[in-house]
């Protein structure tokens, strides 16, 4: 019996769907039906059916303002799963350990998912008073340093869409609850390259976070240092912890292929 070549088992519709997804690369964030039809050399009706199928499963979404299409959250989730399994956590562990060795405060690596921060891994301080580990817990991104890092580096369009449906909750007296104040906070983060959570989710807890980028230059996570406010004074944050977390973010990004 002659064994068939794997190419003979290819399903054309699936191949076209994957070709469509692969059109969104580098700086191409959105594409319309006409442009996709030209690129794929397919009739507009076929392209529309592919888009409708992928949109129903969350791999593609439509920008209601422009009527163009872009990658959906499911595509992001797949990428994050790959990073989690093959790169981010493996590369992050030794850097988290280095942070804790240097400052003896708890260090985390986190991702952003659907308006929430999700902590994937942690190395804890050996001090008795410490922040409770929240691995796997979904926390509101708008009042965590790691979440604010992700939101700060979103496109203007993504951020406006997010803020339009975001409900600010007053978790503590220092939680930012006004949209304009929050936008100003994000602008500050973009300028300085790190985010600071000043007891905005939990009273008595402060946190500093820096972005993690991969070889595509995309932000794929955040690395953070967290501890009780009594140990994280303004002076210590500025002189010791900010430089430490920025270096950790840069080192981890380099490990993931981000060009120096």
Write up this protein.
By secondary structure, this protein is α+β, with helices and mostly antiparallel strands. Helices cover 44% and strands 18% of the residues. A hairpin with a 6-residue loop joins β1 (60-62) and β2. α2 crosses α3. The protein is elongated, with a radius of gyration of 21 Å. The mean pLDDT is 89.
CATH architecture group name of the largest domain: 2-Layer Sandwich
Q: DSSP helix count? A: 9
The tally of beta strands, per DSSP, is 8
Largest sheet: 6 strands, antiparallel
Shape: elongated
- Strands of the widest sheet, in order across it, are 5-4-3-8-7-6
Structural topology:
Elements: H1 12-21, H2 33-40, H3 44-56, E1 60-62, E2 69-71, H4 73-86, H5 88-103, E3 106-113, E4 116-123, E5 138-140, H6 145-152, H7 156-164, H8 179-192, E6 195-198, E7 205-213, E8 219-228, H9 234-255
Antiparallel strand pairs: 1-2, 3-4, 3-8, 4-5, 6-7, 7-8
Helix pairs in contact: 1-3, 2-3, 5-9, 6-8
Features:
Beta-Lactamase, 2 domains, 260 residues, 9 helices, elongated, single chain, alpha+beta
Brief synopsis:
This protein has 260 residues and is of the alpha+beta class. The protein has helices at residues 12-21, 33-40, 44-56, 73-86, 88-103, 145-152, 156-164, 179-192, 234-255; strands at residues 60-62, 69-71, 106-113, 116-123, 138-140, 195-198, 205-213, 219-228. The mean pLDDT is 89.
